[in-house]
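Regression test case RT-17, inverse folding.

Input:
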């Protein structure tokens, strides 16, 4: 991330809550229908519309280190997916498909068809947005995927995730979330800073939609051939969820989209846009400008 943009926002020692508040301060918050409540969107900047969809048990803050740069180039729309962050649960049944319908309705409500939004999705957001694109098609210019599952591929050795319990001290709870980040999200433990732990704990605390059971499905692989827009992919080279390899994931995506353009970011894990934001934003902007 350019130093002049990042220096103050992400300075060491700054309180995580203050970082989130500073980035959210100039966002316009909008709502569209979702289940019995609302899907919550945050918008920054101007220009071509780009929609950011976060991962499982997350929120718009999965993109927190990319938004300050992207809003200099695009009209950025960051959604809280159904049942996550500040958004309501989707209509029954609670599935990626019902989530995708809510996201598609939101895009149709907020962004005119002729503007053709670019959709950029991370992990579970890719699953949801594949379904959304089946509803949208010509409303969208292209689709960029990062770190998705739901490709019908082995998930690798099972790892028991630590769980926060009410009897734990605050220090023990923080250690649970730090450990989750180390196992699943970030390749280098020394990059797990107080902001990352705060975002993880806050997002998990708000999460009502449980996306993990859907990760072993093949729904993206089956549905992506019916998505009629160009597809791109950006992955962290050390993504622990990309088993058996990142290239195998690209191969599965390429089955339905032989035009697939890919970029693998070295020295980065699953949450690549947080761990290596400079490299991620540079790769994304390059792809979108091609």
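Golden output:
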């Amino acid at each position: 991330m350019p130093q002049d943009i990042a220096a103050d926002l992400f300075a060491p020692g700054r309180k995580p809550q203050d970082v989130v508040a500073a980035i959210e301060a100039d966002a316009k918050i909008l709502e569209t229908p979702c289940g019995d409540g609302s899907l919550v969107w945050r918008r920054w900047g101007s220009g071509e519309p780009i929609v950011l969809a976060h991962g499982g048990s997350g929120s718009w803050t999965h993109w927190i280190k990319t938004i300050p740069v992207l809003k200099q180039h695009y009209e950025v729309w960051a959604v809280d997916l159904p049942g996550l962050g500040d958004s309501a649960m989707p209509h029954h049944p609670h599935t990626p498909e019902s989530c995708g319908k809510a996201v598609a309705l939101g895009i149709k409500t907020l962004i005119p068809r002729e503007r053709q939004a670019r959709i950029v999705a991370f992990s579970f957001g890719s699953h949801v947005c594949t379904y959304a694109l089946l509803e949208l098609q010509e409303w969208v210019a292209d689709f960029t995927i990062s770190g998705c599952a739901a490709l019908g591929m082995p998930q690798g050795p099972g790892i028991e995730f630590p769980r926060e319990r009410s009897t734990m001290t605050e220090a023990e709870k923080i250690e649970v979330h730090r450990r989750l980040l180390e196992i699943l999200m970030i390749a280098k433990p020394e990059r797990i800073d107080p902001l990352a732990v705060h975002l993880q704990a806050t997002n998990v605390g708000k999460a009502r939609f449980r996306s993990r059971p859907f990760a072993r499905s093949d729904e993206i692989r089956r549905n992506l051939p019916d998505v009629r827009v160009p597809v791109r992919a950006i992955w962290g080279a050390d993504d622990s969820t990309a088993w058996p390899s990142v290239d195998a994931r690209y191969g599965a995506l390429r089955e339905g989209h032989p035009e697939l353009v890919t970029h693998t970011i070295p020295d980065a894990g699953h949450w690549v846009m947080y761990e290596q934001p400079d490299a991620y934003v540079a790769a994304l902007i390059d792809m979108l400008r091609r």
